[in-house]
Amino acid sequence: MALFDDEYAANPHPALAELRQAGPVHRVTSAAGIPFWMVTRWDEARQVLTDPSLSKRQPVDQLPAELRAALATQMLLRDPPDHTRLRRLVSAAFTPRRTQALRPRIEQITDRLLDELATVSEPDLIDRFAVPLPLEVICELLGIPGGERRPFHAWSNVIIGGSGGPADMVAAMSAIVAYFRDLLARKRAQPSDDLLGALLAVVDDGDRLSDDEVVGMALLLLVAGHETTANLIGNAVHLICRQPDQRERVLKDPGLLPAVVEEVLRMASPSATSTYRVTTRPITLGATTIPAGEQVLISLLAVNRDPRRFTDPETFDPARGDGGHLAFGHGIHFCLGAPLARVEAQIALTRLFGRHPEIQLAVRPEELRWRTGLLMHGLEALPVRLRTET
Ligand code: HEM
């Protein structure tokens, strides 16, 4: 099956529905020709996400030395007990309270971006709003000084925008790691109350994070929290604009937005898949047994529309109440930034629709371009008109 081409990117659901109907797990081949197993049903997804015999460890020995240390210590690529230790230390610093405290800054950043947006006719909402907002918020969270953020936008273009090949990606990540190392030295000399400062200071039962671990964590937060949140905001605006009745409801009662955001997460999951896991022993899913040593991905897009779990899964219904989407994963690697992503999306949508209630797509839906590739589900561009022409 021709998965992961342009047609699939624009509308992956028919192909995924076919696979899901055929069975819970399938052997597929990535665009790069790498074979792996893809899980397409909700029950089996939970089984995989809670089975400790599936490992997150991936070889990093192909990478340049300066990146290797930062990636090898990332908790998304570790199993217990290392993962448990890293997650505990980070959770002590990246608390829900820290996320809540960031609200006023998120609102300011949002308003500034919206001021700039309003000066352009037919702005691209992805380029001017959905992408820079989470990037600025993560810089704020980590404590990257305002004057030092400009290179992050260029690096993010390479990492997210795909403006270059894999070598440029590695170069951008190496540059970020070098920057974080330097920043960390400065923060050690002058303690700060931002997240980087807190990660340096955190002590748990006499244990603390090494510099490599703090750098790895900062890189992980940046990469994990950026494109995903940008996709969530873009996918939400797209879905709301295409459903006038939803827009009316949201405009009348912004209190509905948290439920709308959850339904966007389910129907247009910003992370199209989980990250890779590798089987360390044979595992049986339905009638299929996957041998040891194989790569497994969960199609979050597919499992979040599994009719075995969700009533009428193709209908956008924020009031559905049957919950349980897996857009943020599940189990020990459940997204650490989920509270932040939710707050960001809610503020972004409240402010955007509050200021521009007439906002609409500036192109026909079939003209929209979607990002290709396996891991993400989001728009490359979303040209909008902020007000109805009179
Ligand atoms: C893990 C999705 C935003 C930080 C994950 C996972 C998913 C996910 C599916 C689990 C991957 C797996 O098990 O293979 C999302 C989505 C987001 C979002 C859809 C936005 C809508 C964020 C933000 C941050 C963040 C804003 C931080 C600032 C992380 C981290 C992990 C993670 C650190 C690894 C947790 C661990 O290994 O224990 N995310 N994420 N994410 N996410 Fe998010």
Automatic annotation (TrEMBL):
<protein>
    <submittedName>
        <fullName>Cytochrome P450</fullName>
    </submittedName>
</protein>
<keyword id="KW-0560">Oxidoreductase</keyword>
<dbReference type="InterPro" id="IPR036396">
    <property type="entry name" value="Cyt_P450_sf"/>
</dbReference>
<keyword id="KW-0349">Heme</keyword>
<dbReference type="InterPro" id="IPR017972">
    <property type="entry name" value="Cyt_P450_CS"/>
</dbReference>
<comment type="similarity">
    <text>Belongs to the cytochrome P450 family.</text>
</comment>
<dbReference type="InterPro" id="IPR001128">
    <property type="entry name" value="Cyt_P450"/>
</dbReference>
<dbReference type="GO" id="GO:0004497">
    <property type="term" value="F:monooxygenase activity"/>
</dbReference>
<dbReference type="GO" id="GO:0005506">
    <property type="term" value="F:iron ion binding"/>
</dbReference>
<dbReference type="GO" id="GO:0020037">
    <property type="term" value="F:heme binding"/>
</dbReference>
<keyword id="KW-0479">Metal-binding</keyword>
<keyword id="KW-0503">Monooxygenase</keyword>
<dbReference type="GO" id="GO:0016705">
    <property type="term" value="F:oxidoreductase activity, acting on paired donors, with incorporation or reduction of molecular oxygen"/>
</dbReference>
<keyword id="KW-0408">Iron</keyword>
<dbReference type="Pfam" id="PF00067">
    <property type="entry name" value="p450"/>
</dbReference>
<dbReference type="GO" id="GO:0017000">
    <property type="term" value="P:antibiotic biosynthetic process"/>
</dbReference>
<dbReference type="InterPro" id="IPR002397">
    <property type="entry name" value="Cyt_P450_B"/>
</dbReference>
